[in-house]
Amino acid sequence: MATAAPATRTASATMNIDKARIDRALAEMVTGGRAAGASALVWRDGKEIYFGTAGYADREAKRPMRRDTLAQIWSMTKPVTGVALMQLWEQGKFRLDDPLSDYLPEFAQTKVYEGADSAGNPVLRPPHRPILVRDIFRHTAGLGDGPGDSYPQKALAAADPLNPGNDLPEFSRRMATVPLAYEPGTQWRYSLAVDVQATLVEKLSGQKFEDYVRQHIFVPLRMRDTAWTQPQERYSRLAIPYARGSDGKLQRKNEADIRLWNFSNRKLTRGGAGLVSSLDDYMRFARMLLNGGALDGVRILKPATAKLMSTDQLDPRIVERSWLPDKLNGGFGLDFAVRTGQPKSKKENRGAVGEFFWDGAWSTLFWVDPANKLTVVYFVQSEPFDGTLHHDIRRAVYGDNYLGPKGD
Question: Which end of the chain is more exposed for a tag (fewer CB within 10 A), N or C?
């Protein structure tokens, strides 16, 4: 007699898309004051099964969120950069475990910060092993990101690698002067490593990074709305960003932030941020990943490469993982967070083992769920980053009881 499947396999055996549930979630984000506007697009089994919006792209002008609204996606730029660099890996341009300094020699002199001596001076020494190319994919290089009070953070601010007047080679030279915050390969800590990836794309391809990505990703995938610099005729489609004020309410950001994406005098094209995209455009990128690197007869990556990128690359000994565990029960691949275990409680984000994803500073999100042949792109422009929005859109897509397949 056949035995029943273990009850622990899933909390719910099937996943059903409830369009009304997603509509309610988007509406509640707006009425609850967490977003001025929100939109979501869901594909499953090779077809669109949901599109919806709530609220405004421009609240003051009463311009609604629409399907063709453009959003600043910030760190959702990172997976695009990762795909570009892995195309060059497929061509044999580098090995993942090569020292980064083989290609960017300035990093051969980068030191690790060990602390301060008795006089308060920083103690710097060579790392026990070099930064590997693999490290800049998985945020284990020791590089920093953002302001802070530690010596490496202050050194990063002083070096000013992200000054828009720097080109990518100058960014890299300045970045290499900043002491590492920890030994390469020992921690996961979000960083400017993907901007280093962009420098490597430029160095290995012989093309400007922006040109390479356009030619090898955007044009083949027909991502016509996605770019670091948008033409002026698209300004009217841009979603306005809103930031939470001291009163807890969302307030329109200033003009400099609104047009940040189109800074015409910049020399720097970042690998880690800066893209503006539309729901349909980014969905084409996500569908390519779901399909193992190809879409509509165009191959961007080999299936094995797409699988490698979406497989957890963190050694079990890397236990210091900053805020990554707040996002999922899992680890990190090559420019993607990767789910390796079921959500342990309803407080955690819903999702299926094997999914991979990333998000953006203004609370945008996308994820790819191979177990359910599903991908979702979610747009909002709310600052600071609001993880409750991601919890709620995921809950709306999956429902409260679905946990997906059990992890290893």
Answer: N
